[in-house]
Give the backbone structure.
Amino acid sequence: MEKEHDDKLRIWSESPADTEELGVILGSILQPGDLFFLSGELGSGKTLMVRGVTAGLKSEELATSPTFALVHRYEGELPLYHLDLYRLSEPGELEPLALEELMEEEAAIMIEWGDSAKEILSSSYMEIEFLRGENDNQRIITFCPFGEHYRRINRLIYEKITYEIRNFK
Ligand SMILES: Nc1ncnc2c1ncn2[C@@H]1O[C@H](COP(=O)(O)OP(=O)(O)OP(=O)(O)O)[C@@H](O)[C@H]1O
Ligand SMILES: [Mg+2]
């Protein structure tokens, strides 16, 4: 893993394991009410990162791509709602999900393909962008914070990664 730091935090993942490990680090930082949108093309690594987050939260069940439901709740040190709205055909289908109510819970929320949900939720959130790199196993992962709380999360992730690189590589 390599890193670069300003307001945004950009991380070069060199393998699926790198991306999952980044999720584990994120899981150790998450707090109730935290809201993350994950964007990037099919197969760019969004679900794999959420899987790492569930591992970091010590959930018995690890996140996978949902086959049917749009929302799945994982129980761990902090509950995590994982939403994948890829199959949403019109914004009206969001209503039964009662996203505003999820936001009130003592849980964190990570949403794939969530553009349609962005307007109705908070103006403060983290957007994580996933891009494919030059080779098959490379992904460029950019944490874009909206609001001071999420800038602080970026500083924490940066510190944790720096610490891991110094001690384990
Ligand atoms: N550095 C990497 N980080 C993440 N995934 C990687 C990496 N290199 C290769 N891969 C592969 O890319 C795929 C990522 O799949 P994943 O389901 O996480 O994507 P996704 O962004 O959630 O896709 P979708 O939009 O279909 O939900 C996996 O097959 C994984 O093994
Ligand atoms: Mg996915």
Summary: The chain has one domain: 2-168. The mean pLDDT is 91. The chain is about 30% helix and 25% strand.
